[in-house]
Amino acid sequence: MAAESAAGHATGHDTGNGTGTAVNLGTPAVPGARSSGPGATTPRPDNPALIDTFGRVATDLRVSLTDKCNLRCSYCMPAEGLEWMPGDQVLSDDELVRLMDIAVGRLGVTDIRLTGGEPLLRPNLEELVARITALEPRPRLSMTTNGIGFAKRAAAFAEAGLNRINVSLDSVNPETFERITRRDRLRHVLDGLAAAREAGLEPVKINAVLIRGENDHEATSLLRFALEHGYHLRFIEQMPLDAQHGWDRANMITATEILDLLSTEFTLTPSPAERGGAPAERWLVDGGPAEVGVIPSVTRPFCAACERTRLTADGAVRSCLFSNDETDLRMLLRGGASDEDVANVWRDTMWGKLAGHEINEAGFAQPLRPMSSIGG
Questions:
Q1: Is the peptide bond before 363 cis (omega within 30 degrees of 0)?
Q2: Which end of the chain has fewer CB atoms within 10 angstroms, the N or the C?
Q3: Residue 219, SS3?
Q4: pLDDT tens-digit profile of 196-206?
């Protein structure tokens, strides 16, 4: 089958043994921070970039604007929701812009993605976007959203300088969508997608998670929908980032299974485009030019090419999505630290980054924070 051929070409990247731990920075950090690792024994060179001891350079910043969400996706959080961050713990717009200014002006960040929770729930977001795109040098700015409410705001976001969006959508079947998200909001998401395309926020990408027994039978219908409307579809392996800590590897639809499902109706061949640090393996659909992506975070990790650094809504910088170590930049900001002081702490945090996320290691521990709190 086409998927069998495809899987043979998609070997991913070696993550290494991942036996190191994060460096103790002597700065405010969340409980449980570890004090040894590659960065603890190897001096960081005099380099302004966000480099680590494995030669990676972080140029892509993921910024969570809120932990709140207006959906209750079953693989992310319980039906009753979560206890949200107190407002005084969330970074203000001025604090967010200052940190992003440090990132692009001092640390070499070129791409910023706004995430959540659901970023559209952040008040005055269009104004914040305009402030971010006014930074020098000007970063490329994208946003990951569930799309609810975006239709009426798409033109304003484009005017403010937003470059593109990723919309989370696991089904185009109303019943399946409502069962997974616990909300009857599919039409609002579809309207948001169409408005994004009309506003020129392209390529418009869709992120989909397949859940065994829930929507795995709809993989091909999702791809047909994306092809018909000119959207770029990417399937993501379900990751152990749910608030319930109920993730089960046996229930995860793997990248190989995704390709097998798609290959029942489409011919998939590896894209000749360079992957670089992109998380998605890309496949030409029926010879191209249309493509579909698969992000095999669990079964074929791409840690060796990771270019990302992360900032939570309450001001913690994380070197990895799956890290249980964070460094508190909010305390530095509110304590009067200079921009260069903050930049140096950020550099030290990334210098201590592990070789890989260790999901496939025996001692892996799911992050204490769920995805909605970390930011995608």
A1: no
A2: N
A3: helix
A4: 999 999 999 99
